[in-house]
Amino acid sequence: MKTAAKPVAVRTLNLVQAVNEALDIAMAADKRVMILGEDVGVNGGVFRATEGLWKKYGDDRVVDTPLAEIGIMGSAIGLAITGMRPVAEIQFDGFMPSVFDQVVCHLGRIRSRSRGKMSVPLVLRAPHGGLIHAPEHHSESPEAYFCHTPGITVVIPSTPHDAKGLLLAAIESPDPVVFFEPKLLYRSAKGEVPSGHYTVEIGKARVVKEGKDITLITWGAMTVTCQKAAERLESEDGASVEILDLRTLAPLDLDAVLASVSKTGRCVIAHEAPNTGSWAAELSALIGERALLRLLAPVARVGGWDIRMPLFRLEQYYIPDADRVVMAARKTLKF
Amino acid sequence: MPLKTIASLDIKRLEILGIDGTVDKSLMPKLSDKILLEMYRLMFQIRAFDERAILLQRSGRLGTYPMITGQEATQCVPPLALKPSDWVVPTYRGGGVYFARGMQMRYGLLYWAGDDRGTRFPDGNNDMIFSIPVGTHLTQVAGLAWGQKFKGKGGVALTYCGDGTSSKGDLHEALTFAGQFKLPAIYIIENNGWAISVPRKKQSASQTLAQKAWGYGVHGIQVDGNDALAVYSATVEAVARARKGEGATVIECETYRMGHHTTADDWTRYRETKEVESWKQKDPIARFKKFLAAKKLWDEKKEKHLAAQTKVWIDGEVKAYEETPAPNPLNMFADNYAAAPWNLIEQRAELEELLKFKGGAKVLMELPPSEGRFP
Predict the structure, then answer these.
(1) Per CATH, which fold does B13-322 belong to?
(2) Mind listing the pLDDT tens digit for each residue in A90-113?
(3) Is B329 in the A-facing interface, judged by CB distances under 8 Å?
(4) CATH of the domain at A137
(5) Is the pTM of this model over 0.90?
(6) Which of A23, B140, B177, B243 is the most buried (most CB within 10 A)?
């Protein structure tokens, strides 16, 4: 950036404000960065993540597209190949399956199929997860489908600080990044965010708190649930709990996972998606393969049930709460 | 060789009932007084229901709710041209369609209150739940129509999508199938001017949405979607074509979403008040009332009576909705498979364990009866 460095101010922002600020900084710094999606322009996005950007950067760079997710995804791929830096928004997680053909068959393969001649430096943003009393298909956790797809980086922050730093890193990444934003945390997660440009390294987990007896591995909004569970396990059970917020799901920070699990010997993986075929399943396999002899108990997984996400009256019984994490942790500790 | 014109399109727009209540007699369909009064009742009642639902949401008694107001003619009238055995798949905004199909609206409220028991349609009706990822039902409707063709009893499938959804590839594939296999399908494009904040003109450079149909060998027509008589006439013609095995029809109903996209939206962020006001002049109910009055079928006394009846009906539906006991959390495991596999059996037991952990052993005794089939 050519502008003289301004003094860094640290403010308290919520997660959606942090996303907005990252987009603003990226667009100001690089004319190739553009935003496309449904209702992202005049309306500023249904969660207001792009608020004010259309006014500032205009129709050409903040584009209200027709209602067509495949159109958004495919044209973002084309734009990225030509050297643009598109940041595409899919309005809700439940609309992500629409873009699947583009993601699975093309997004992560173009670098390899062009023998390294082409790359697809785009970011695909989408809200993630439940518990905001949203309508059907608005509370999904589809990360495993994307993590399973080669060639794609998958990121999910749980704090405003990380949201801004990771989104800037994602926009600057030479490869495609799927960037999930936990919608429960959009306004409820508040934290200190430095002004100006900074990045958080993609591929690095965050130790939320250190502990000795058990590791809770988690991501997204479940990080907050795990913090509540840890407080109870410490006060009611006298357990010392470590929490690892993965932040990047693919590629995994395997070193951080193995270091923590090797230290505690006990591990609960907590997430919102159905357990079967989940990213927790992959983590569990990796821990089994590489740290078996350090384990004092089987790896436990706490996730959604293997059924569709119910309508919101029952969502609190579907998405794991602190009770479920505590129950699983107690079984693991007593094993 | 000179260039030859090998195809040209002739896109028609049907309007019968003017905003002053007068009709074009040459286009007027044959309709009994009884059915005219039924059209009015349906439109009148669903608007009152819509207004109550919004109030319920605003007072915290309902979840996010999509407004219907302005689109009553487009929604309430086409079902009148159908039989219960015809398939109908509305959009998420299609409360008026379900109502005209005879749905008890307490279930509509229950659905928007986040309760899975709200997807209950009248027994004997071939009604399907809408798709929230918009347009994903459109190819399924081609299949429903195809199934009707196999049955050979003249059944049809009628569905809706919005102007926004008409941009999705789903419609392209659905109409490709409907045209290729000459399916008895009716696709109503409920063009209400706005896909959340994106206006129709930013949705497609196509002059009309109706004309898209012809590219697939499907009949297409635009109608004034706030004109109940035009909507009826176009639907009857499309249904007749379908029943005779002459293929599918796209009906673009040009209407207007008078309210927000949903209660979670705020239209003042993206559209002009004067545009909304201009559509008030084209209101589907007001003009139909003028038409009925001119035919001496309606007066203020009848209007008052209907309003009173409607209030009683809505009060009853709201009461039934609000008195529905909270769902048993274990319900969510029912009806996922014809026979539940081991993981669901285990996980349901795990949920029971969680409920006990939260509230003690007596909690399970106090739960409302579980519903649905399990295992």
Answers:
(1) Rossmann fold (3.40.50)
(2) 999 999 999 999 999 999 999 999
(3) yes
(4) 3.40.50.970
(5) yes
(6) A23
